[in-house]
Amino acid sequence: MKRCGYMTVYLALTFGVMISLFLAVIEGARRSTIRMHIECCADMALDSALAQYHREMLEQYDLFFIDTSYGTGDPSFHRTEDWIFEYMEKNLRPGEEFSLPGIRDITGLSATDVNLLRAGLATDDGGGVLKYHAVRYMKDVSGLSLAQRILGLGEQAQGWQGQDVEGQWDEAEAALKEEIAHKKRLQDEDWDGEIPETPSDAVRATRGEGILGPAAQGMKLSGASIPDASRPSKRKLNRGTGLFEPKTAADGLIDDGLFYAYIMEHCGYLGKEKENSALAYEVEYILQRQCQDRENLKRTAQELLLIREAANAAFLFGSGLRSEAAGAANVIAALLLMPEIAPAVETVILFAWAYAESVKDVRILFQGGRVPLLKSEGEWNTPFSRLLTYRMHLDSYRSSESGWSYGDYLGALLFLHGSENAQQGLMDVMESDIRRTPGNGEFRIDGLIDGMEAQISVTSGFSGDFEITRIYEYERE
Asked: TM segments (predicted)?
């Protein structure tokens, strides 16, 4: 049976409005879904990019960085952009990866571009980005005690740095010789110009041999070296955008102390060499920045010697041991028939005695013993009777239980050399060490980024173009 129907004008008009509203709601839901989907996919893509951290940087140095060369030796932000783009495509169109029957894509999304607006390289700000993360690591694992200890050692040693004790010794010796020559000429017109030797002369003669020989006597030293021109501190580096706000550079005194503690914990040095490292004496390299292990050790030993000389000379000139030098000086002056030169002879003998004790101090440190910065008479190891033959008795000593170890002195030297020098040296050490590991022969530390600000462009087959910006980086809580 046929039935008739009708539609009023009002219903016709209302129906058109309702259809428009319904379609608008559907399109709004689609656009909201698209935005949410893009945000989720961007977060997953950037998380996946951060998951590609460099394994050796974490294994050896406990730091998270992305290697933008991805093992190719050619670091580039574009490589990271390509990886993010690939992750976006997989997340936006999962149906292409996992085929499921009956599934329809209502968003029609695909990535069109990824651009890194900001990315901080480890080497930015002269290694400041690297230092920032090293300091953050130390704050997490050790607190401030290690920093305070190294800063304390450095401040104590600072008082003895730069005192040219050997120069003062040479000046005193030259003045004494001139005075003796002058008086000899007055006493004897036929004087042949020969000046008698003092105990100081015999000790001074050994100075020309250097400190490394006696300090490392009988020890097997490393002969390792690294290439010169390829070091990060010697070549032109890639540049990033540095630390992101609200991060601030680790420039405070405590931060410096934590950075030095990080170096001492993660780098090798004499007596605590690191396995499979390019250089055996890495902390010494950071201090001296020479390509050869032996040269770095030699220069470090010389620095230690000068600090020990200053401290030992100051002790001797104010201690009761001075009387032994005074007695010998009086005898020498009497034999020369010049009693008035006794104080000058005593001075040069004291300088020589301080030098001999300092050589033994460095030897003690190289052997793993301890040497206090300021000694007491009971901690003095070179009897005056052995001054002339001190080189024969370098292994006759008492190690102080409360003194500084070789590592303590290295920490103090790091403080004295400053954090900028330490940053440059550490970058060289890290790169040379990681290049020795499988698959990292072309590794470059100026290809490491600690995070990124990425701008991702996406297009939809239904709703136009979209753009999202995200900041993702490694950050310790």
From this structure: 6-26
